[in-house]
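Encode chain A's predicted structure.
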Amino acid sequence: MFNTTNKKVSIFLILLGIIYLILSFRLPKYAYVPVDSDLVPICLGVLLLILAGILYFTKDQEKKEDDERIPKKELPIVLGVIGLIVIYISLLEIIGFVLVSVLFLFFCSMFLGYKKYVINGIVSLVIPTFVYLLFDSFLQIQLPSGILPF
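Encoded structure for chain A:
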C-alpha cells in the first residue's frame, strides 16, 4: 500500500483533507447570507481529497536518491519565500488584504528574479483588487480591510 512516495504523500493528504473537512463542517452557520462561511473551506477540502486521490494512482517517476533533497544553492530562496509568507500572514489583519497582497506579490516576484517591474506592479495591483471585489461583492465575504477605509 505504501510502496511509492506518491502513495505515502497522498494517504497523508487524504487524512489531512478529512480532518479539514470535518472542521469545515463545524463552522457556524449564518442566517440571511447568500453564501455561508463554510463554502470556500468545504470546496477546498473536497478539492484536496480529489487531488490526493489522483496522486495516489499516479506512478512515481524513477529518480536517484539525491533528487529528494533541496539543493544547497536553492535553500536561501526557499527560506526567503517562507519568510515572505510568514510576514504576509502576520501583517494581513493589520495592513489589510489588498495592501499586503500587493506588496507580497510584488516583492515575492522580485525576489524570485522577475525583472519587468511595471508588469509586476500592474499584476500585483490587479489580482488582489479583483479577488477583494469578488469576495466582497459576489460572495459577500469580508476580507481584512486593515488601514484602508473600505
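Residues 35 and 139 are 6 Å apart (CA to CA).
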